[in-house]
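re the bet — no i am not wrong, look at it urself. input seq straight from the record:
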Amino acid sequence: MTTDRRPPLSPALAALAIALLLGLQPVTTDLYLPALPLLRAQLGASMPAVQLTMSLLLLAFGAGQLVAGPLSDRFGRRPVLVGGLTLHVAASLACAVAPDIEALIVARTVQGLGLAACVVCARAMVRDLYEPAEGAHVMTWAMSGLGVMALAAPLVGGWLAAQVGWRAPLGAVAAVAVATLAFIAGRVPETIARRQPDALRLGPLARAMGEVLRHRTFRAWAGLVSATYGGLFLMLAGSSFVYMGVLGLDAAGYGMALASASLAYLGGTFWCRRLLRQHGLAGAARRGAVCTLLGGLGMAALGLSGSTQLAPVLAAHWLYNIGHGVHQPCGQAGAVGPFPRSAGLASALAGCLLAVVAFAVGLWLGRALDGSLRPLGLGLGFWSVTTSLIAWTWVRRDGEHFGPAHASAAAR
């Protein structure tokens, strides 16, 4: 086992780097959402095919983390980050010039592989540099930065789609990826303190995976993150067809609606910082679940009533996103907390579970959307109940077991 001298990285620079890397995910998913109806019409694509541009990206994102996580434990975060960002840039350019829906689906799938390296390394960097409680605070600042990017993405995407066409938002994703690559390559040093020589050997890797998956604290936080993202992904993948097709917004108006939901998420991350100081990780998650449940059940009620009113739909969307803004930083820090020496692997497994959930949601949504609010409402209601139950049971019981007695995988 080799040991590296860890270069200094200030909390502000760390939060900025993590925000950019994690923020690449909403840029990749949100920026092109206002263009989906236009893209579908101009390429003559079916609804299931259009949904594959999102769900296959997420599936590749999940599978890619299972490779990127162990690679980053073995060789370090920096080479995996630079390689992943380079792949993301190339795939983003291919998306912008795709001649048909099939080529776009392939390019988006490759894009998901590059995104996997960025996100898994960002989460692992938090554990490289901080203990779980402190890491959760840094993660809230990073998530606030992510929230700003998520706020801007649909506004920019809606304007570009309306003014230039559906290819312009995909080109903008490539531009953001190029800027992120330049920043990471120029400013962010290696953060891993001790590389794991056995990280890619099948026997030790399988044993380490089993230990992570059996850890109750990991299961609690990974379950919470996956469930809350299930509802968020439902809104990302389906909301353009509801806000524009059912509620009558144009591309720019939809971009503003989605941006307002991102602003609610940003508010949730600020609320999370206060909750962490007062109640700790598990306590923050339990309180955030109140907003999650109210938003999801409100959307379900609107869907069942056949509502076509914008204001109550937005209000339910906002409430869910406030809860998501609490659960994401807590869950992402909590899932890797017990594993200081295998943070990349733990991050990869949590991300893979999240992506599998999102892929399943995308497949279901491509067949369930029927020109009404009902599928979106019932789907969000389901994920809000699931998220809240996990927060009030598993997370409450097992969410803060970070001590040596609970981290045998990290000690080996």
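see?? Residues 1-7, 404-412 have pLDDT under 50 and may be disordered. told u. also The chain has one domain: 11-187+202-401. so pay up
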